[in-house]
TrEMBL record:
Region (Disordered): 320-340
Organism of provenance: Krasilnikoviella flava
InterPro entries in the record: HTH_LacI, LacI/GalR-like_sensor, Lambda_DNA-bd_dom_sf, Peripla_BP_I
Protein's name in the database: Transcriptional regulator, LacI family
One Pfam family of this chain: LacI
GO MF annotation, one: transcription cis-regulatory region binding
Listed PROSITE patterns: HTH_LACI_1, HTH_LACI_2
Domain HTH lacI-type as annotated: residue spans: 4-58
Keywords: DNA-binding, Transcription, Transcription regulation
Length: 340
């Protein structure tokens, strides 16, 4: 079917193309009666605006952008982003907006993508995830004519852009305190990607709370993938002095760690307690079910989208705390065997 143009609408309505343009763009120049007739004809013919024409006119293109700098295959098992994007889509659907999602190999690729989108007017604003220190994306998005943007992360790593964050430090302190209260004296943590802002915040909270509680803290670096999570777990358990509890920076690594514990003959939770971050159906499908730091990731995504619309409307940059993940205790944690 051929695309309906303003010439088609003008012919059907018996007016000039200029009058159609005024009516469709809600500009003065036509009477209310003529505007109503033109809009009625446009609806009857099934007219929709051309994105290219809207870009040239400076109108909104009704699309926001999200770039993920990571290996594409990770999205197949990264439940956080599936839930997060679902929340974004809830808000976009309410406003008849679309989401432009692109996966790139690294942060420089993300900067280049933002530049291309801005030059071509592909999006009205962008969501930035995984902020870090000296982040080149924040520099590029802080200019006078830059795309409106919202950072998903602690304001410490958001520069002068608005941010929406969860209180990861408070959540991790609660978790370490809980495990220490059960009697664990050697607690490990399988971290996410080193350098990410939220990884840094969790590092500081983990070390600080462990020192306060008088327990030994050990960190094994990983990258949120199951393979890295399994290798990190092995380094904490397959040793002469293994930890008796492990906190993971996501659910996928915790699930992989559970498999390593079974493989090594370590009973969960008798020999080692495991705690996941980002509670998901995966945590509840495991055996035993995984204790987790829980927060509503779908709601988090929706909150971020709402703040981006506010920013696109000219709101000042502010930091918004979404929530503090709470500890949901299940069968994967308990006192160490020596305390039973």
């Amino acid at each position: 079917m051929a695309r309906i143009t303003i010439a088609d609408i003008a012919r059907q309505a018996g007016v000039s193309t200029g009058a159609v343009s005024y009516a469709l763009n809600d500009r003065p120049g036509v009477s209310d009666e003529t505007r109503a007739r033109i809009l009625g004809v446009a609806a009857e013919l099934g007219w929709v605006p051309s994105q290219a024409a809207r870009a040239l006119s400076g109108a909104r293109v009704e699309t926001i952008g999200l770039v993920l700098a990571r290996a594409p295959e990770t999205l197949g098992f990264e439940s956080f982003y599936m839930q997060f994007i679902a929340g974004i889509e809830q808000v976009l659907t309410e406003r008849s907006y679309g989401l432009l999602l692109q996966v790139v190999p690294d942060i420089e690729g993300e900067v280049q993508t933002h530049r291309r989108w801005h030059a071509a007017r592909r999006v009205d604003g962008v969501i930035v995830v995984d902020p870090r220190r000296d982040d080149p994306r924040l520099v590029a998005l802080s200019g006078r004519d830059a795309l409106p943007a919202v950072v998903v992360g602690d304001p410490e790593f958001a520069g002068n852009l608005p941010s929406v964050f969860t209180d990861d430090a408070a959540a991790l302190r609660e978790c370490v305190g809980y495990l220490a209260g059960l009697g664990h004296r050697r607690i490990g943590r399988v971290s996410g990607t080193e350098g990410f802002g939220h990884t840094t915040i969790r590092d500081l909270a983990f070390d600080g709370e462990a020192a306060r509680a008088g327990v030994v803290a050990r960190v094994a670096r990983a990258d949120f993938t199951p393979d890295a999570g399994a290798a990190a777990t092995r380094s904490l358990l397959d040793t002469d002095d293994p930890v008796t509890a492990v906190i993971y920076d996501n659910d996928v690594m915790a699930f992989a760690g559970l498999g390593v514990a079974h493989e090594l003959g370590a009973r969960v939770p008798e020999d080692v307690s495991l705690v996941a971050w980002d509670d998901s159906p995966l945590c509840q499908a495991a055996y035993p079910q995984l204790t987790a730091l829980s927060h509503d990731v779908t709601s988090y995504g929706a909150h971020v989208a709402r703040r981006l619309f506010e920013r696109m409307a000219g709101a000042e940059a502010r930091a918004y705390r979404d929530s503090t993940p709470t500890l949901t205790v299940r069968g994967s944690t308990g006192p160490p065997a020596t305390r039973r």
